[in-house]
Amino acid sequence: MDEQEMSKFYQTKNKDNEFGLIRNQYLLIKDESNTIVDQFKWTGSRLVAVSFKTIDTECIGKVKPKNVKQQCYFDMLEDKTTTVKCVIGKQGTGKSYIATAWALSKVQRGDFDKLVVLRNNPELVGTKSFGFLPGATDAKLLWLSGHIRNSVTQEDYEHMCACGEIELFPLNFIRGKSWEKSILYLSEAQNTNLELMQVIVGRVGEGSILILDGDIKQTDLKVFSGESNGLVAVSRSLCGNELFSMVELTDVERSKTSALADLIK
User: Fold this and answer.
1) What single-letter DSSP state applies at residue 21?
2) 29: closest CA among 54, 12, 49?
3) What number is the average pLDDT over the span 128-156?
4) Spatial CA neighbour of 98 closest among 157, 24, 151, 143
5) Which domains does the chain carry?
6) Is the Cβ–Cβ distance between 193 and 169 less than 8 Å?
7) Which residues contact 35 (CB under 8 A, 6 or more apart)?
8) DSSP state letters, 86-141
9) pTM (global) more than 0.70
10) Alpha carbons 87 and 211: distance in angstroms, whole number
């Protein structure tokens, strides 16, 4: 927007839905230099300014957004009106780190009883199977929590598991399960199909929420590609629903080196 368009927008922004936004859709305002100068969210009846709170956890410390779209992500997580929260984006954009920090902060404050870590187990394309993993059940499930153990110390992780604040649950056994007052977190959600996603959403009990993260370009099996992909299906089907919200992260914040992955073709 130029200055005149921006002035008119702020005078009339809640008189009508001039941009045709759907419920919970974010609106980023750019000036003539293409710099984002403001952010709003359409509630279904009006535009509200995007706000965010710094995430503060005992085991990770303070986490702040590093870019505008991460600010929208923080806002989405804090929105108590939505119970299915979806974030998509390539590796290194902060999807899992922010979700983990936010979820642990809410469990530690007592807003939720536990963080339930869900994960499908297709093996990465181009790798070879290890076969059966040795050890007891807990040892076999350690791979589920890699993104959490990258964020906290081993001592904190073991303490939270022992206290029941973290539960690891592979999708193989999810039928018939239900969780109340819990944060269900499915990382790498692109490795699901439509039917599996239906089952996952159907496990969200009273007082619980579901966080989905993934990168649709990184499906590890052909069966998860195309329109039958679970992440595609949930965004297509629930888009505009009052209980659903979604953010796409685009800026790689992990490191300059990790951003080189996009150059390999």
Assistant:
1) P
2) 49
3) 61
4) 151
5) 12-50 (no CATH), 52-254 (3.40.50.300)
6) no
7) none
8) EEEE-TTSSHHHHHHHHHHHHHHHTSSSEEEEEE--PPPTT-----SPPS-HHHHT
9) yes
10) 8
